[in-house]
Specification:
The complex is a heterodimer of chains A (246) and B (433).
Chain A lengths: L1 E10 L2 E11 L4 E5 L6 H8 L7 E6 L2 E2 L2 H6 L1 E3 L11 H11 L4 H14 L15 H13 L5 E5 L7 H16 L3 E6 L2 H4 L5 E6 L2 E7 H7 L11 H9 L7
Parallel strand pairs in A: 3-8, 3-9, 6-7, 7-8
Antiparallel strand pairs in A: 1-2, 1-4, 4-5, 9-10
Helix pairs in contact in A: 3-4
Chain B lengths: L2 H15 L1 H27 L6 E6 L2 H10 L6 E8 L7 H8 L5 E7 L5 E7 L2 H5 L1 H15 L5 H8 L15 H38 L2 H8 L2 H38 L1 H10 L3 H13 L6 H28 L3 H27 L4 H6 L6 H11 L4 H29 L9 H9 L3
Parallel strand pairs in B: 1-2, 1-3
Antiparallel strand pairs in B: 3-4
Helix pairs in contact in B: 1-10, 2-10, 2-11, 3-6, 6-7, 8-10, 8-12, 8-13, 8-14, 8-16, 10-13, 11-12, 13-14, 13-16, 13-17, 14-16, 16-17, 17-18
Classes of the chains: A alpha/beta (246), B alpha/beta (433).
């Protein structure tokens, strides 16, 4: 279990995170939601020990997160990046090695993930030759290639078209099935609704609502009675997923 | 696999695989060969580029004496068929000079007291600069020309013995000294350029990783100090490879020069080209090249290259981590180039005056010491304790710079946009590593 325990962080006079607490149960998907600038990325960086909290503690399996634990985590930053002139496959192998994965296992896993994300043909290309969506997929593989026990995704769906959002969602579900615990941030509620068991909504550095998503929804009166296809559904039907290449 | 080792390997292989590296290195090697052979090629194309001097004398005896005297200058001297009556340059000769036949004319004449006198008419600037040497050279002719009956005695006296018994343990004679200094100067330039070029690459590399945000992924798996070490060691391996290839190119140039001209001819060719000693020494540097450099000098070159490179690389990495755009490197690195430029200027002094206080003390101060101590070791006998202080001091400085750079890295690598304020840098340096 990941425990974020009364964590606070200020930058100069600006408070980025104040007294934030939440738990992420093993094998579940947790959504950290809130508007831009609410403190999501800062919270994520504290969880990953990239930033040090002014007060409070982050624990994984009951132990304070240190360099050793952090090395096992997977992280997809909001600001995506790869070496522009290094072949995608080589970068993924390089990143897997940094996480302590041996080459045989890494190569096998890269193959599986590339298959799942329709990226196999692009593994020999360099990122500058790829579309933005394919770059994002490569990045996603980079974050999960070492089978992390905890996967942290910062705005994982930004930049993807609706078809690829579904592809990535499927990949996330697949990882959860393999036992990965996922923490993701988003400012788009509809994108995370069907993935997350638990959520925490933060606004201006503070938690304003947290708990089990179903319980939260039950607490709010239903208001919508619309019965029409969403634009998402129409788009997906029109573009036909099997012919898609981001 | 060790994380730092993985980072070093990536840094090295990705850099040497780039087309820019392959082309740059290949062109660099070809450039070195051409550059080394250029003076030889030039001197073989133009039959002689020695100063052409024409002598005009009142009589054959004076012309002969003057010609004899000027032998030591290495000029191509010819004697005019005309006879000089006074210091004036005859119009016919002036016309010949204007037609580019001669670089200078020397008119010998008898003055009002019937004493031998000269009027020198240099046309080219190098001939003008040599006025003093010409004056020195013709002293012999003046002595003999005005000697009268004592001429034989004076001529005998002028053939005095002058042997050089060098007490300098390094150089046996002047040519030897110029030769050694030539090589040290050559190596010094390489050291200076390498430290700046590869130091800059470290800064650029750090900024690149920041700019394409790969840093964000890696920072999860790697400590900032490991990223820093990977960058510095990876690029230093690239630097060594490139320098090694250049050394091979230089050796090839030496072999080609040797085959084409032979060592003695080379010296003669170069000697004819102008000031004889320096040219002959340069020719030796070119044709004998690296093989004649003492192993100890090469060893110290490598030691001081690393000491210099690591000192500056740590600083450049620290600066790089605080910046966001490659253009900004130029701006900020100027400040940090001051010590290396200062060291280079001092090292030029140190080539001929390795024991003056500023050079001596400078050779023990980090950042300037690598260039200075290398030069001193190659040109004078340096007490071992000074070498120890120099190397120890540099190692200490590298340790401190790397520690600071690591701290800046931790704060800087995830900072984008505006350059940091002094306050932010100070806070970063004071934070625990």
């Amino acid at each position: 279990m990941l425990e974020v325990d009364r964590v606070s962080k200020t930058f100069g006079k600006v408070s980025a995170v104040s007294d934030l607490s939440f738990n992420v149960a093993r094998g579940t998907v947790f959504g950290l939601l809130g508007p831009n600038g609410a403190g999501k990325t800062t919270t994520i960086r504290i969880v990953l020990d990239i930033l040090t909290a002014d007060s409070g503690e982050v624990r994984w399996d009951g132990k304070r997160v240190d360099g050793e634990a952090r090395r096992t985590f997977g992280y997809l930053p909001e600001e995506r990046g790869l070496y522009p002139k290094m072949k995608v496959f080589d970068q993924l192998l390089f990143l897997a090695r940094l996480h302590g994965i041996d080459d045989a296992r890494a190569k096998k896993r890269i193959g599986e993930l590339a298959d799942a994300l329709n990226l196999t043909e692009k593994l020999g290309s360099v990122p500058t030759e790829l579309s933005k969506g394919n770059q994002q997929k490569a990045q996603f593989i980079a974050a999960v290639v070492h089978d992390p026990p905890l996967l942290v995704l910062d705005e994982p769906f930004s930049g993807f078209d609706p078809i690829n959002i579904e592809v990535v969602k499927a990949a996330i579900r697949d990882l959860v099935a393999r036992g990965t615990t996922v923490m993701l941030s988003s400012h788009r509620m509809e994108q995370v609704e069907e993935l997350c068991e638990d959520i925490c909504i933060i606004d201006r550095s503070r938690a304003v609502l947290s708990g089990n998503l179903k319980d939260i929804k039950r607490g709010y009166p239903e208001r919508t009675v619309t019965v029409s296809a969403s634009l998402n559904d129409i788009y997906i039907a029109a573009v036909k997923p099997e012919g898609s290449h981001a | 696999m060790n994380v730092t080792w993985i980072l070093i390997r990536r840094e090295f292989f990705e850099r040497v695989r780039q087309k820019s590296f392959l082309w740059g290195t290949a062109l660099g090697a070809v450039g070195i060969i051409l550059l080394a052979l250029l003076p030889l090629l030039l001197s073989s194309f133009s039959h002689s580029n020695a100063t052409r001097l024409v002598i005009l004398a009142p009589d054959a005896a004076t012309a002969g004496d003057t010609l004899q005297s000027l032998k030591s200058t290495g000029y191509a001297v010819s004697v005019s068929s005309m006879h000089a009556a006074g210091p004036e340059l005859p119009t016919a000769l002036r016309n010949a000079m204007n037609k580019d036949s001669y670089d200078a004319a020397l008119v010998a004449y008898r003055d009002d007291h019937h004493r031998l006198a000269y009027a020198y008419y240099p046309k080219t600037s190098s001939a003008l600069q040599d006025s003093g040497s010409v004056q020195d050279a013709v002293q012999r002719a003046v002595l003999l020309g005005d000697a009268g009956p004592q001429r034989d005695a004076i001529e005998r006296s002028l053939k005095f013995t002058f042997d050089v018994h060098s007490l300098n343990t390094r150089y046996k004679n002047e040519a030897d000294e110029i030769f050694s200094i030539g090589i040290v100067y050559f190596l010094l330039v390489i050291l200076y350029i390498a430290v700046i070029v590869y130091g800059m690459q470290v800064a650029q590399g750090v900024i690149e990783e920041k700019a394409n945000r790969i840093m964000e992924i890696m920072i999860g798996a790697v400590r900032p100090s490991q990223l820093l070490a990977g960058k510095i060691f990876g690029i230093s391996a690239v630097a060594l490879l490139q320098l090694g290839i250049n050394a091979v190119a230089a050796a090839i140039a030496a072999v080609i020069a040797g085959v084409l001209y032979g060592t003695s001819t080379t010296a003669a060719h170069a000697g004819a080209a102008g000031s004889p000693l320096a040219q002959a020494a340069m020719a030796r540097v070119i044709s004998e090249g690296l093989p004649s450099v003492p192993w100890a000098t090469l060893g110290f070159l490598i030691v001081f290259f690393f000491l210099g490179f690591f000192s500056y690389a740590a600083i450049y990495a620290g600066i790089g981590s605080l910046l966001s755009k490659p253009e900004e490197v130029q701006q900020y690195s100027t400040v940090f180039m001051v010590p290396i430029v200062a060291a280079y200027i001092l090292a030029i002094f140190a080539l001929t005056q390795p024991d003056i206080p500023i050079v001596k003390w400078g050779s023990m101060i980090p950042l300037v010491s690598p260039l200075l101590m290398f030069t001193r070791i190659s040109t004078t006998n340096v007490p071992w304790w000074q070498i120890a202080i120099s190397i120890g001091g540099s190692l200490l400085a590298i340790w401190a710079f790397t520690l600071f750079a690591g701290k800046l890295y931790r704060v800087g690598v995830l900072m984008y946009g505006k350059p940091p304020t002094i306050k932010e840098i100070w806070r970063a340096l004071r934070s625990p590593a």
